[in-house]
Amino acid sequence: MTFRERILLIMIAAAGIIFCGDTSAPAISILTPAPADSVSYDQSKLLILSVEEQAVPNLLVSTQWNILRYMDVSPLPAKKSFPKDFYKLFDSKATIGRFIYNFKLSTGYTSPETLSYSYSDTMTIRSLWSTPALSKFAQAVQPPGVLGVVLSVTGWKDSLYEAVYDDPNADGRALYKLHIQLLPGVNRIYFGAAATKNVSVEYYAEFKQEFKPIEDRTRHFHNSALEQSCTTCHEGLPSADSGATMKADCASCHKTFAGAEFLHAPVEMKECESCHAWSAEKKMIVGVKAPPELCYDCHQEKKEAVENSAFPHPVASDCLTCHSAHGTNTKHQLKADVYTLCSSCHPDMTVNHPVGKHPVRFAKNEVNGEEVSCVSCHNPHGSANEHLLKVGGGRMMICLECHQK
């Protein structure tokens, strides 16, 4: 049995323990969500853990972070200072998991190269810098023909939590309610005692771009056995047992929704009932309507763009493929930056598009001062022109929007 399979078995056993005070429970039990419910359609995930206080007096939580940068190394001073500038990008205590880089040359971009490390390797920037692979990388920046470096680095950052709540049905155990911020794609999250990363419990959470109605998802906290246990102390939870409706203060638990940089207006106003309702028939929270009709109630202009365009974007009517219904740290509540969203469906257009060494990110449009991206030329919802181009008259006309000489 592999290490990952052993961890998965522990997680499955932990998920089945619901405030039962079982003395055979592992030191760290993930009560919710269960491994089968690891998919998230939002940037955040709420987890509840039961932890043995003697074995784990303080809980170490390692969540994922990423850095995406373009570093200009065309001038000689930038090449000389590159090691120092690169080093400053990272928190000295953060752990690095995957390091992807490629170079911008006068002829275009090189193919990406990847270095990968496990969580237990505890690879910090200091230890990474002493490896032969990083020495080779730093030397590759120096030739005059190398104009820039594209960096994408993912790793783990540690947070230490003190026990605040006692587990009411298990002596010697504490409850932790954790709000985890997710990166697009698969996130590997670890829970353990301080300084014992080699024996941490691993949890996989996948932040997906697509949308799935709440009622069609596999598991639900509200109206579950776990929520029924919570209602013995907490009032107002929207469950059939408590008889509550959407009058509950959702933000008391879903704090990460309200903590995003760019919020959907109903979230900011705590008007969750604008989009959600309690179904007495299904005994769960459901959507008032399904997208895109629900979105069109407020965003009529987008309905016009999608339904009346000669060339609609195929996914434009699936609003929640690209946008979060609650909030994210990206403008327009996008689930990721424009480049990441578009390249997930168009992987062959990530560099040198549409021609030669043309950039699709990390460059400024000198006409309007905005960063060059896919939406500099294409309308993401729909267009009167082929290829969703913003201007008509042939493909070359879009070039003249910026290149007028």
Description of the molecule:
With 405 residues, the chain is of the alpha+beta class. The protein folds into three domains: 3-62 and 159-214, Immunoglobulins (Immunoglobulin-like, Sandwich); 63-154, Dna Ligase, domain 1, CATH 3.30.1490; 241-335, no CATH class. 20% of the residues lie in helices and 27% in strands. It has helices at residues 3-15, 76-80, 82-87, 125-129, 132-140, 225-230, 255-258, 265-268, 293-296, 300-307, 319-322, 338-345, 395-399, and strands at 28-32, 39-40, 44-52, 58-72, 95-105, 108-109, 113-116, 146-162, 165-166, 173-181, 185-193, 201-207, 262-263, 276-279, 284-287, 311-312, 327-328, 382-383. The strands form five sheets. Strands 2, 4, 5, 6, 7, 8, 11 and 12 form an eight-stranded mixed β-sheet that branches. A four-stranded antiparallel β-sheet has the order 1-3-10-9. The chain has a two-stranded antiparallel sheet with strand order 13-17. A hairpin with a 2-residue loop joins strand 5 and strand 6. The radius of gyration is 24 Å and the shape is flat. The N and C termini lie far apart (65 Å). The model is unreliable at 1-23 (pLDDT under 50).
